[in-house]
Design a protein that fits this description.
This protein has 20 helices and two strands. The protein has a single domain, classed as Up-down Bundle (Growth Hormone, Chain: A). It is mainly alpha-helical. Helices cover 76% and strands 1% of the residues. It is globular and about 60 Å long. It starts with a strand and ends with a helix. The model is unreliable at 1-38 (pLDDT under 50). It has helices at residues 41-53, 55-83, 87-115, 117-134, 141-155, 158-169, 172-183, 185-201, 211-233, 246-266, 271-276, 278-307, 315-340, 344-360, 367-388, 390-395, 398-430, 434-440, 442-453, 458-461, and strands spanning 3-5, 454-456.
Length: 463
């Protein structure tokens, strides 16, 4: 089927920010990133300002969200026994997060488009931060179920909301590298979460609380504080940014308005058009498969590693290895994708590698070989995701972008529910994880097939 090539070009709304933030130092002749030339002093000054004022906020928001989302995997090492949770109950609770997430994703993003990021993002951050903190006081499976659902409601609008805000601030050619820097916060947060979770779990018994209770409390507080930072520092649009020089502000607003007009001259999607587009639904189905594998791994990987014979004390540290590898490889892969100006094979190939690696876990018996396969699986998934959002971001604008990106995210996160639940169910039935991991490999396989069949929306990207 002919769908959009994932090729980058011109001033487009897609892509892969792969240069580290430090390489985004711009000067009058060259912006320091892959030889791209700054068109004016105002461009240089404006891009430098929004890079250091806006991108760190977006990165921090997604970083804290992922910490709050996946810390349950480390808590489960001792929490499940304390609360009497079976693997299936834990998988259901982990997955209920995504029921709330899917249910509220589109409404949350439409509210964001109406109220603005400065108002709406702090509200949802305070909501999910509070829900994450209250996880420390669950007493049984049912209270755990309820709080995981509320946590999903709170986080539902964040990621598509951050993509929407990025489109409001960064011109197309710069948005390419900023997107991968944002996505990089995911494996980075898991690496950091792995490293800090281990010493927090050692607080077991302090002030009469379990280590897993301290984990939820101490990792939720930064999110609540960050909500206030967002409210105080994030302007709703470049026109309201007091820290932009008048000439820089004029250049930025005119550039963004010009790009918007060019893309909408090709086709301006309505909200309904975005929600019924076959291309958007193809991206959503691919996302469902990749997310099933991603969250099945993220939420169960600590327990899988522990089952390989690693001690509970060392498990968080070993858990950091696949995500550290993924952080490095996805940046290099994104650089290659941008250099070649190609998207669909750069999504399909790592997804296929992830599929083969995970399926192979059904026949592997050596713990080191299994760990290598899991690392390849995690790395392939994140390399896919770093390319994935190029196509819909190039197509959609305004409220249609808010709705379309939220739809993809919502459908994809049905997989985020199904993956962990299935792994937990298989673990309870069979007593091991091998068949569950093998089934997770089918998700990236589906994503690779969809990505390989996509032809690019050149008419949007070359507008």
């Amino acid at each position: 089927m002919a769908v959009p090539s994932m090729r980058a070009g011109g001033a487009q709304d897609n892509g892969l920010p792969v240069a580290p933030v430090s390489s985004l130092c711009l000067n009058g002749k060259n912006n320091g990133t892959w030889g791209m030339t700054a068109e004016s002093a105002n461009e240089t000054s404006a891009v430098r300002a929004i890079t250091w004022r806006i991108l760190p906020l977006l990165f921090a928001g997604y970083f804290t969200a992922y910490i709050d989302r996946v810390n349950v995997g480390f808590a489960a090492l001792t929490m499940n026994q304390d609360l009497g949770l079976s693997a299936e109950q834990y998988g259901l609770a982990a997955g209920l997060f995504f029921v709330g997430y899917v249910a509220f994703s589109i409404p949350s993003n439409l509210i964001l488009a109406k109220l603005g990021g400065r108002t709406w993002l702090p509200i949802i951050m305070a909501c999910w931060g509070s829900a994450s903190l209250l996880n420390a006081f669950v007493v049984d499976a049912h209270t755990f179920y309820g709080l995981r659902f509320i946590l999903g409601l709170g986080e539902a609008g964040l990621y598509p909301g951050l993509l929407y805000i990025m489109a409001q601030w960064f011109p197309g050619k710069y948005r390419v590298r900023m997107l991968t820097l944002l996505i990089l916060s995911t494996p980075f947060s898991i690496v950091v979460g792995s490293l800090i979770s281990q010493p927090i779990l050692l607080l077991d018994g302090a002030m009469g609380m379990k280590g897993w209770q301290w984990l939820f409390i101490l990792q939720a507080l930064p999110t609540i504080a960050l909500a206030l930072v967002f409210w105080l520092t994030l302007p709703d649009s470049p026109a309201e940014a007091r820290w932009l020089k008048p000439a820089d502000k004029k250049w930025l607003t005119e550039t963004l308005a010009g790009e918007l007009a060019q893309r909408e001259s090709v086709q301006k999607f309505s909200v309904r058009g975005a929600l019924t587009s076959p291309i958007i639904w193809a991206c959503a189905v691919a996302g469902l498969g990749i997310n099933a594998a991603a969250y099945g791994l993220i939420l169960f990987l600590p327990q899988m590693i522990n089952a390989l014979g690693v001690s509970k004390v060392m498990t968080p540290l070993v858990n950091a290895i696949p995500f550290a590898v993924a952080s490095v490889v996805m940046v290099a892969w994104g650089f290659h994708s941008d250099r070649k100006m190609e998207r669909n094979w750069h999504a399909a190939i790592p997804a296929f590698i992830a599929a083969i690696a995970l399926i192979s876990c059904a026949i592997l018996t050596n713990p080191i070989a299994i760990m290598v396969a899991l690392t390849l699986g995690v790395t392939g998934v994140f390399c896919y995701v770093s390319v994935f959002w190029a196509v819909p971001s190039a197509m959609l604008t305004g409220s249609a972008a808010a709705a379309g990106l939220a739809l993809i995210n919502a459908v994809a996160n049905i997989g985020s529910f199904a993956g962990p639940y299935y792994v937990g169910w298989v673990r309870d039935v069979t007593g091991h994880y091998a068949l569950g991991i093998m089934a997770l490999g089918l998700g990236p396989l589906l994503a690779s097939i969809v990505a390989a069949s996509l032809r690019s929306a050149r008419k949007f990207e070359q507008a």
